[in-house]
Write a structure and sequence with these properties.
heterotrimer, A mainly alpha, B mainly alpha, C alpha+beta, B: mainly alpha, Helix Hairpins, 3 helices, flat, C: alpha+beta, Alpha-Beta Plaits, 2 domains, three-stranded antiparallel β-sheet, 5 helices, about 60% helix
Chain lengths: ~110, ~90, ~170
C-alpha cells in the first residue's frame, strides 16, 4: 500500500516535468531553446517512470526480468539522448538556422565564420 | 492498479500535444526535436501499460522505440550538417 | 584503418553478450551458445570502430568507485536543480530567457574525458554542447549554448556551467 503511494508520487513527478518540457517545446521562440526544453522531457520526465516501474516490478510483481528490462530502457535513453541532442544542435547551426532575435553572445559564429 | 492506466493516458496526451510542433515547425530541426520528445513519451506510456496489463511484449516494443529514436535523430542531424546522411 | 586489438575485441564481446542476456533473460544452453556466436562475430567486425584507446581503463578500484560516486551522488543533484530551473521557466510562459553561445575552457585532455564532460553538460537541461575545438597551445574549448547567459567571460562562465561536474570527472579521466 505504501509502495503504491510512492510509485504514484514518482509517476506524478514524471508527468509534471514532461508537461513542462512539452509546454516549452510548444511555446519557446527559437529552435535552440526548444532543444533545451526537450532535454527536460528526456531526463526527469523519463527517470521518474523508470525508478517507479523498477520498484513496482521488483516488489509487487516479483519479476526480475521486467525490472531489468525497464532498467535497460532507462539506461539506453539516458546514455544516447545527449548524443542525439548534440548532433542535432550542431547540424541545425551549421545548416544556417539562426534565431530571429539576435543572441546575447555568439562565440561560435565569431570564431568559425570567415 | 488503474492508476497506471491513467498515467499512461496522460503520457499519450502529452505525446499528442507535441504533434502541434511536428506539423507546424518552421524547419526540419524543430520537427525532429518534437519527434524525439514524442518517442520518449511513447516509451514511458508503453512501460506503464506493460505494468498495467502484466504482459512483457510491450516492453520489447519500448526497447525498439528507444533504439530507433536515437538512430533517426542522429541521421537527420548528420544530414543537416553535411548534406548527406551518416 | 587501424588494426584490431585483442583487448578491444574482448571488451566488445563482453558488452554484446551482457546485452543479449539482458534482452532474452533465459539461461538454457542453446540460447547461451547462439548468443556467444553472434556476439563473437559482431565484436570481430565492430571492435575497431568502437574502441580506440585502452579498453580496460575503468578496471581499477579508484577509478571505478569514483565513477560510481559521481553518477550516483554528485550528478543527480545538479540534474534536479537544473530541471527545477527549467520547469520554472516553462511554466512561467517562456519569457525569462536570454539565449546565447559562450566559449568555455576545459581541463580534459583525452577523448573519453572530453566526451564525458560534454555529454554531462548536454544532459543537464539549460545547456547544450555544440562544438569542441583545440587551439595552438593544446587547450580544449567547448562551445556551449546557454539558455540564460549570466557571464560572458570564459573562466567565470565555465565555473557556472560545469564547476562541480568537472571536479567530479577529473578523478576518473584526465
Amino acid at each position: 500500500m505504501i509502495l503504491q503511494i510512492v510509485c504514484d508520487v514518482l509517476f506524478l513527478i514524471s508527468v509534471v516535468f514532461a508537461l513542462a518540457g512539452t509546454l516549452g517545446i510548444i511555446k519557446m521562440p527559437d529552435t535552440f531553446s526548444r532543444m533545451q526544453a526537450s532535454t527536460c522531457v528526456s531526463t526527469l520526465g523519463v527517470l521518474g517512470v523508470i525508478i517507479g516501474g523498477i520498484l513496482y516490478a521488483a516488489i509487487v510483481m516479483h519479476s526480475a526480468s521486467t525490472a531489468i528490462k525497464i532498467g535497460v530502457i532507462g539506461l539506453m535513453i539516458l546514455v544516447t539522448n545527449p548524443i542525439g541532442s548534440h548532433v542535432l544542435a550542431r547540424g541545425a547551426y551549421k545548416s544556417g538556422i539562426r534565431p530571429e532575435k539576435p543572441m546575447e553572445t555568439d562565440d561560435l559564429g565569431r570564431d568559425f565564420d570567415e | 492498479m488503474t492508476d497506471m492506466l491513467i498515467f499512461a493516458i496522460f503520457f499519450a496526451v502529452l505525446a499528442t500535444m507535441n504533434l502541434y510542433r511536428l506539423t507546424k515547425g518552421p524547419n526540419a530541426a524543430d520537427r525532429m526535436v518534437a519527434g524525439d520528445a514524442m518517442d520518449n513519451l511513447i516509451c514511458c506510456a508503453m512501460i506503464l501499460f506493460s505494468l498495467y496489463s502484466g504482459r512483457g511484449i510491450y516492453l520489447d516494443i519500448a526497447v525498439l522505440a528507444a533504439l530507433f529514436g536515437i538512430i533517426d535523430t542522429i541521421l537527420v542531424g548528420r544530414y543537416l550538417e553535411k548534406g548527406r546522411g551518416l | 584503418m587501424q588494426k584490431t586489438k585483442f583487448s578491444a575485441v574482448l571488451a566488445t564481446f563482453v558488452l554484446c553478450f551482457a546485452f543479449w542476456i539482458l534482452l532474452t533473460w533465459s539461461f538454457t544452453l542453446q540460447e547461451l551458445i547462439a548468443g556467444a556466436v553472434v556476439s563473437l562475430l559482431v565484436s570481430l567486425f565492430a571492435a575497431r570502430f568502437f574502441i580506440h584507446v585502452k579498453a580496460g581503463w575503468l578496471v581499477h578500484p579508484g577509478r571505478f568507485f569514483s565513477c560510481l560516486l559521481f553518477w550516483i551522488f554528485i550528478f543527480p543533484v545538479e540534474l534536479i536543480k537544473a530541471n527545477l530551473n527549467m520547469a520554472k521557466i516553462c511554466f512561467g510562459g517562456c519569457k525569462a530567457i536570454n539565449p546565447g553561445i559562450v566559449k568555455v575552457p576545459t581541463a580534459m585532455k583525452s577523448d573519453y574525458g572530453l566526451a564525458a564532460v560534454s555529454n554531462s553538460i548536454t544532459l543537464t537541461p539549460g545547456t547544450i554542447t555544440m562544438e569542441t575545438a583545440e587551439d595552438e597551445e593544446g587547450q580544449n574549448w567547448l562551445y556551449v549554448h546557454w539558455i540564460n547567459v549570466e557571464e560572458t567571460d570564459p573562466e567565470k562562465a565555465g565555473n557556472a556551467i560545469k564547476g562541480t561536474l568537472e571536479k567530479g570527472l577529473r578523478r576518473v579521466w584526465e
